Amino acid sequence: MSHQSISSIAFVGLGAMGAPMAENLVRKQFRVTGFDMREAAREALVAAGGHAAASAKEAAEGAEALLLMVVNAAQARAVLFEAGALAALAPGATVILMATCPPGEAEAIAAEVTKTGRHFIDAPVSGGVNGARNATLTIMVGAPSESFARAKPVLDALGDKVFHVGEKAGQGATVKTVNQLLCGVHIAVAAEALSLAEKAGIDGRLLFEIMGGSAASSWMLRDRGPRMHEPDPVVASAVDIFVKDLGIVLDAGRAAKTALPLAAAAHQMFLSASGLGHGGRDDSQVVRAYRALNAKPANDA
To answer: pTM of the predicted model, to two decimals?
Structure first.
């Protein structure tokens, strides 16, 4: 292909997933300049062989690509437009948005980026911290073929399952939204099954051992199930992430006039767990909302 390959990357958002992703790009010989609000995160990138900048705009100065691993669409907008990172990029640069955003937001941001003559890649990811660390992320891309081809070497350095799902920004976000619908409902239903078994005095660990090897199993049941028995498991992904992501799922359903009753019920359970004060705990702890709901009433005769 005639397009020039990307060698310098500005990376904004060096969080639990962003940090190992940026390090993987450094390992693959890209020149990476990172920015994060936290100084420790910037220093860690420098220690790994990358460069650090004092602002998102400074990181983007003349870079051929800007990778956004921020929390949401509002943060992406703040970096691109308010902080001036978009204008600081090289003229034909590529913006790669990897945050989980509502499809309509990804589309709107894309329109503003492409009208400056730059490329936009809607590329949300799945695979969590482990996928980020091991460069085994699943990446769902909505972008014109030419823009996708340009960004592919960067994406290949981050994930081993890179899918071009459509020519339009927003389509990657839609696939990620469907992924989160399934994941959120699977975790909630595993917790629901566990509460019924526990109420009947059946050992939950044994239950998940049986179910995990049967047709009733799911990846989430096998992964999150064991953590539902721990009093305070290590946080792989927080309850509040599903409060946010299932909110995005329901918004997408509203926009497309599509009823999503199971997603809505799961969202209520994550909301409840968050309302009980467990928003920062591991998402397996949605089980606490079920335990609160199904506690023995005081006047149990």
So the answer is: 0.89
